[in-house]
Design a protein that fits this description.
Length: 227
């Protein structure tokens, strides 16, 4: 029975990997199409935005499923290295520039030029990419990404000016981080994966974590804390 379960898990992981790659090719073709035939009317821009955003969201979810599968099998390596944070954050914004442009979203990076952190850039890039795609989906017209050292942690915040996180998520974040409630769409799986990746970053007695909150203005704030 265990062998059958292992075979099915391997088959499922392989299928998810193939779907992820196919969606990656679809996104690349879509970006080429949008560059060659830019939207001139609002309804066309909205359709481009929906296609790009939803394809990115599904691809991210597939990446997280693969990541969780590898985490459970202790097959997800972590490579900690020194990273210049501002350059890293600007790279993540640039990767989603088409989505931000289509939605007329202004992005701002607030980070000291020489701020350095120690983390796995590939894993953290995956976490931030998901948060930025979600922020683009729910914000009104602005996203601010900030980073600073506070209380022995590198704290990276992604803030939007949308409606904010649902109150249930603020009151019971552990339920969402455990992936119990998937009714919120793309959020819970991404939060679960983000929490697992953050926790893999440790220093002495400190362990990485995530926090979600709402700004006084009503927008949402995702905080990634890395020791």
């Amino acid at each position: 029975m265990n062998d059958n379960n292992n075979d099915f898990s391997l088959l499922l992981a392989s299928s998810v990997h193939d779907m992820k790659n196919s969606l990656g090719m679809l996104l690349s073709s879509l970006e080429d199409l949008m560059s060659e035939y830019p939207a001139e009317e609002d309804n066309h821009k909205k359709k481009y935005c929906t296609l790009q955003g939803e394809a990115s969201r599904i691809r991210n979810d597939l990446i997280y499923l693969l990541g969780i599968y590898r985490l459970q099998r202790d097959e997800l390596p972590i490579h900690i290295e020194e990273i210049f944070v501002r350059d890293f954050l600007e790279e993540q914004v640039a990767q989603n520039s088409i989505l931000f442009d289509i939605r007329d979203i202004t992005t701002t990076v607030q980070c000291e030029e020489n701020l350095a952190g120690y983390f796995d850039d590939d894993l953290i890039a995956g976490v931030l990419n998901n948060i930025l795609v979600n922020a683009a989906r729910y914000t009104k017209d602005s996203i601010v990404i900030s980073a600073a050292i506070d209380d022995e942690y590198l704290q990276i915040k992604v803030m939007d000016n949308g409606r904010g996180y649902p109150e249930m998520m603020i009151r019971e974040p552990s339920a969402y981080v455990k992936g119990i409630d998937f009714d919120s769409g793309s959020t819970s799986l991404g939060l679960y994966f983000a929490a697992q990746i953050a926790a893999m970053h440790t220093k002495d007695e400190l362990k990485g974590m995530i926090e979600i909150s709402n700004l006084p203005s009503g927008g949402g704030c995702f905080t990634l804390k890395l020791p």
